[in-house]
Specification:
Elements: H1 2-37, H2 43-69, H3 92-97, H4 106-127, H5 134-156, H6 161-164, H7 173-191, H8 212-231, H9 240-272, H10 277-292, H11 300-323, H12 332-346, H13 356-385, H14 391-396, H15 409-412
Helix pairs in contact: 1-2, 1-4, 1-8, 2-4, 2-5, 4-5, 4-7, 5-7, 5-13, 7-12, 7-13, 8-9, 8-10, 9-10, 9-11, 10-11, 10-12, 11-12
C-alpha cells in the first residue's frame, strides 16, 4: 500500500512539473508573438524585456510572492501577511501519513505557480511595447510579481475572501490574464500612444508588425503551452476520475482555441472585406483565455462556442481600443483583459456552482485592485525615473539604447 501511495505521489508530482515546463515554454511564445508584432527596430528590446521579466518573476516569487499568495497561516481573508523564501518539501513519512491528502511535492507546486506569475507579467510587456524604458519596466516587474499579483491571487487561490464568496476561476482568466491586462492598461494610459499612431483629426495609422511568421510561431507555442496551463491546474492525474478530467480539459482547451480562431477570421473578413492574420492569431488566444476560467465542466461543443464568442469579442475590442486611442501594439488588453472578463462570466453557463454575482464581484475586485495598485506603482516610477523613452530613441528604435551595449554593435546586432 505504501508503494502505491509513493507511486501516485511521484506520478502527480511529475505531471505537475511537466505541466509547469509547458507553461514556462509559453514565455517563448509571448516573446515570439510580441517580437513579430512590433517593428523590427524594437525586436531586441522586446526580447530583452521578456527574458528579464521571467528571471525577475522567478526570483521575486521565491523571495516573497509565493508566501503571500499561499501563506501557511493568513492574518485574515483579505491580508495574508508577509513571508519570505520557500520551506522544506514533504517528507516520505508525512506523505504516507496524510492518507492521500498530500499527493504532490511542495516545490513542484512552487514551480507550477511561478510560471503563472511570469505569464501575467508577459501580458504587460506586449501592451507597453515600443515606447517604455527598459529599467522602468523592470522595476515595475519587481512590484507586480512580488506583491500585486500574489495578493490578488491569495484572495482566490490562496483561500481568501473571493474564494469564500464562491468566485470561480479554474486556471486564471481573472487571477492571471485579467490581472496582467489591468496592470498593462495603466501603463498604456500613462505612456500614451506611439508617435504617428493617431492623427490630429482622429485618424488611425496602422503600424504593422515586422515578422508575421514569427508571430504565428509564437501563437502556436502559446497554444501548446496552454495544455499545461489548464491541464496542470487539475493538479492530479493518478486516478481514473482525474485522468478523465485532465483529458476533458485538454480537449476543451483545444476546441475553444479553434473556435476563437475561426470566429475571429470570419469577423475580420466581414468587417474588413478580407482575412486578417493578426486577428486570426488573437482570436485563437482569445479562445484560450475565455476557456481558462472553466475548461472542465463544459462539453466540447460548448467550449467551442465559448471560444468563438471570445474570438468575436477580441476583434471588436481591438477596433474599439483604437477608436479610443488606446495604443496596444499586440492586442493584449483585448485578448487577456476584455476576453478574460467574458471567460469568468461564461463559467455560469456550465458550472452549476457558479453565481453571476460572485463572478462579477471577482471581476470588479481584481480589476479595481490591480488597476489602483499599478497606478500608484507606475506613477511613482514615472516621477522618479520616467517611463517613456526619448523621442530620438522612439524614432530610431530602442533596441539597446538603455542597456549599455550600444558601444558594441558587433555583439548586439545594433546599427547604432
Amino acid at each position: 500500500m505504501d508503494k502505491l501511495t509513493e507511486l501516485s505521489y511521484a506520478l502527480d508530482t511529475f505531471y505537475f512539473l511537466m505541466s509547469g515546463a509547458l507553461v514556462m515554454w509559453m514565455a517563448a511564445g509571448f516573446a515570439m508573438l510580441e517580437a513579430g508584432l512590433v517593428r523590427s527596430k524594437n525586436t531586441t528590446e522586446i526580447l530583452t524585456k521578456n527574458v528579464a521579466l521571467f528571471a525577475i518573476a522567478c526570483i521575486m516569487y521565491m523571495l516573497c510572492g509565493y508566501n503571500i499568495m499561499y501563506p501557511g497561516e493568513a492574518v485574515n481573508s483579505v491580508w495574508p501577511g508577509i513571508g519570505f523564501l520557500l520551506g522544506d518539501d514533504h517528507t516520505a513519512e508525512a506523505v504516507l501519513k496524510s492518507n492521500g491528502e498530500t499527493y504532490y511535492s511542495a516545490l513542484a507546486d512552487f514551480f507550477f505557480q511561478v510560471v503563472f506569475v511570469a505569464t501575467a507579467m508577459s501580458i504587460v510587456s506586449g501592451a507597453v511595447a515600443e515606447r517604455m524604458k527598459l529599467w522602468s519596466f523592470l522595476v515595475f516587474c519587481v512590484v507586480m510579481t512580488g506583491f500585486i499579483y500574489p495578493l490578488q491571487g491569495y484572495w482566490k487561490w490562496g483561500g481568501g475572501f473571493l474564494d469564500g464568496l464562491g468566485f470561480l476561476d479554474f486556471a486564471g482568466s481573472g487571477v492571471v490574464h485579467m490581472c496582467g491586462a489591468s496592470a498593462a492598461l495603466v501603463g498604456v494610459l500613462l505612456l500614451g500612444p506611439r508617435k504617428g499612431k493617431y492623427g490630429p483629426n482622429g485618424e488611425i495609422h496602422p503600424i504593422p508588425g515586422c515578422n508575421m511568421p514569427l508571430a504565428t510561431l509564437g501563437t502556436f507555442i502559446l497554444w501548446m503551452g496552454w495544455f499545461g496551463f489548464n491541464g496542470g491546474s487539475e493538479l492530479k492525474i493518478s486516478d481514473i476520475g482525474e485522468a478523465n478530467a485532465v483529458a476533458m480539459v485538454f480537449v476543451n482547451t483545444n476546441t475553444a482555441a479553434a473556435g476563437g480562431a475561426i470566429a475571429a477570421l470570419f469577423a475580420a473578413h466581414i468587417l474588413f472585406g478580407k482575412a486578417d492574420l493578426s486577428m486570426l492569431l488573437n482570436g485563437a488566444l482569445a479562445g484560450l483565455v475565455a476557456i481558462t476560467a472553466e475548461p472542465l465542466t463544459p462539453s466540447p461543443l460548448l467550449a467551442t462556442v465559448i471560444g468563438m464568442v471570445g474570438g468575436c469579442i477580441v476583434v471588436f475590442s481591438i477596433i474599439g481600443m483604437d477608436k479610443l486611442k488606446i495604443d496596444d501594439p499586440v492586442g493584449a488588453l483585448s485578448v487577456h483583459g476584455v476576453v478574460g472578463m467574458w471567460g469568468l462570466i461564461a463559467v455560469c453557463f456550465s458550472n452549476p456552482d457558479a453565481k453571476f454575482t460572485s463572478q462579477l464581484i471577482g471581476i470588479v475586485t481584481i480589476f479595481g485592485f490591480v488597476f489602483v495598485s499599478s497606478l500608484i506603482a507606475w506613477y511613482v516610477i514615472k516621477l522618479i525615473m520616467g517611463i517613456r523613452v526619448s523621442e530620438e530613441d522612439e524614432y530610431n528604435g530602442v533596441d539597446f539604447s538603455e542597456c549599455g551595449m550600444e558601444a558594441y554593435p558587433e555583439f548586439t546586432g545594433s546599427s547604432k
